[in-house]
Amino acid sequence: MLTLDQFKKLVSDFSLNSQNRVLCAKHLELLYVHYEQLCHWNQTHKLCALSNTADDVYNHYCDSLMGRNLLQNEKSIYDAGSGAGFPGIVLATIGGDQKFHLVELIRKKASFLNFTKEKMRLENVTVCNTGIENFQNLACVISRAAFTPDFQKSLAQVIMPGGHIYSWLSETQQSLMEGACNFVKEEEIHYKLPNGKSRRIECWRKKLV
Q1: Are 152 and 176 in contact (CB under 8 A)?
Q2: pLDDT score of 18
Q3: d(Cα 38, Cα 55) in Å, to the nearest integer?
Q4: Which DSSP helix (H) or strand (E) runs through 26?
Q5: By CB count within 10 A, which of 50, 150, 197, 204 is most buried?
Q6: How far is 102 from 83, CA to CA, in rounded Å?
Q7: Residue 182 and residue 163: Cα distance in Å, rounded?
Q8: Distance (Å, rounded) from C-alpha 58 to C-alpha 46?
Q9: CA 58, CA 60: separation in Å to the nearest integer?
Q10: What is the DSSP string of 140-196?
Q11: CA distance 3 to 199
């Protein structure tokens, strides 16, 4: 596991270089609390793939932070299939007045999210141990989760007209909402993580009619 100083340097350097922003010490320390708990829980619960190297920071924390600017105008954000909290809990840490709802169907992952949320004292986070299909009229959904045609269908149904879906993808993955006739791609950013992985985030908007 990385030390606090190692973690803080990797995240702060990435934020400064990629977005010309400096994360404050409080936010970096909170993110490290999440990282510590994830390393501990992952030994028995296998919440996500970890290597105990800098790649863990790049692949999960830095990748999540890339949605920061895209989401700056969103108020209530639902993270579909939040898993270990990426990107939702990372963005909630720096989200200020934004409200984040971490939607996770698997109980052990929801338990981890609840425990860590309390440990981090994140008052802007709610954990929902259910599937995204059980919601409706959502203005904003984000997801880094692997998706299926059923997942696409669920997202299409829960988003309100004019609402947005933001999906984190590799450069080779198919677009999340490709082929959904009532959605238009509004924005797309491409970036490369410090470990060389090429990534992108797509923003899709549901048509009003």
Answers
A1: yes
A2: 84
A3: 14
A4: helix 25-45
A5: 204
A6: 9
A7: 11
A8: 19
A9: 6
A10: EEEE-S---HHHHHHHHHHEEEEEEEEEEEETTSPPTTTT-TTEEEEEEEEEE-TTS
A11: 26
Please report the pLDDT score of residue 11 as a whole number: 96
- Judge whether 128 and 102 are in contact, CB under 8 Å: yes
Specify the number of domains making up the chain.
Answer: 1
Specify which residues 201 forms β-bridges with.
168, 189
Q: What letter represents residue 190's amino acid?
A: H
What residue has token string 């939040």? Answer: 82
Domain that holds residue 177: 4-206
Low-confidence ranges of the chain (pLDDT < 50): none
Q: How far apart are CA 33 and CA 28, in angstroms?
A: 9
Q: Is 10 helix (H, G, I), strand (E, B) or coil?
A: helix
| pLDDT computed for residue 17 by the predictor | 87
pLDDT for 171: 92
From the CA atom positions of the chain, what is the Rg in Å?
A: 16
8: domain CATH number? 3.40.50.150
Q: How far apart are CA 170 and CA 190, in angstroms?
A: 9
121: left (phi over 0), alpha (psi -120 to 50) or beta: left
